[in-house]
C-alpha cells in the first residue's frame, strides 16, 4: 500500500513514517521546509522520498491513502487534488487505528506535561521485563523501535 504524508518533517509524522515503512508500506511525503535533525536523518536512513508540496506529486505517485499533518490547511493543493482523485485522507491517529493498531494492545500516554518522559520510562520498563514494544514518541529516545514484534504497542 502506498501512503503519502503531508507534513512529514515533524517528529510525530516522521515517527509514523518510520513505523509505516517498517510495517511494509511504501512511504512518501512532502514538507514545505527542509526538515532539521533528527527528522531529516530518520527519513534519509529509512530511504523515504521527500518532496516539496505540489499536487503533481499526488498525480505521479498515486498513493492509496494520504495522511494529512496538522500543518496542512483545508486549501492545501495536495489535499485538494487527493480529494478530487478520491484518495482517502486520514489524520495520523486515524490511519494508525485503522491499519496498524487494530490487533494490538495499546497503552496511551496523554496529558499536558511529561508524556515523552512517561512513554520513555514505560517503553524501557517493558523492554526490561522481556516485552518487545513499539512506541511512538514526540521526542527522541536512545532506544530503537520496530513494529512487527509482539502484539503489544505503546503509543503516544
UniProtKB/TrEMBL annotation:
Residues annotated as domain Mur ligase N-terminal catalytic: 3-100
GO MF entries: acid-amino acid ligase activity; ATP binding
Full protein name: Mur ligase N-terminal catalytic domain-containing protein
UniProt organism field: Thermodesulfobacterium geofontis
CDD domains named among the record's database cross-references: TroA-like
Pfam families: Mur_ligase
Source species, domain of life: Bacteria
Amino acid at each position: 500500500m502506498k501512503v503519502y504524508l503531508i507534513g512529514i518533517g515533524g517528529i510525530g509524522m516522521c515517527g509514523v513514517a518510520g513505523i509505516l515503512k517498517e510495517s511494509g508500506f511504501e512511504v512518501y511525503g512532502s514538507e514545505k521546509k527542509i526538515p532539521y535533525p533528527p527528522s531529516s536523518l530518520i527519513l534519509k536512513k529509512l530511504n523515504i522520498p521527500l518532496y516539496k508540496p505540489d499536487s503533481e506529486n499526488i498525480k505521479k505517485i498515486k498513493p492509496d491513502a494520504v495522511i494529512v499533518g496538522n500543518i496542512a490547511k483545508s486549501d492545501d493543493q495536495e489535499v485538494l487534488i487527493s480529494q478530487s482523485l478520491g484518495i482517502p485522507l486520514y489524520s495520523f491517529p486515524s490511519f494508525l487505528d485503522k491499519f496498524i493498531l487494530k490487533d494490538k494492545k495499546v497503552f496511551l500516554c496523554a496529558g499536558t506535561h511529561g508524556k515523552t518522559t512517561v512513554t520513555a520510562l514505560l517503553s524501557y520498563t517493558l523492554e526490561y521485563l522481556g516485552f518487545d514494544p513499539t512506541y511512538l514518541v514526540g521526542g527522541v529516545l536512545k532506544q530503537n523501535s520496530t513494529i512487527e514484534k509482539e502484539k503489544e504497542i505503546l503509543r503516544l
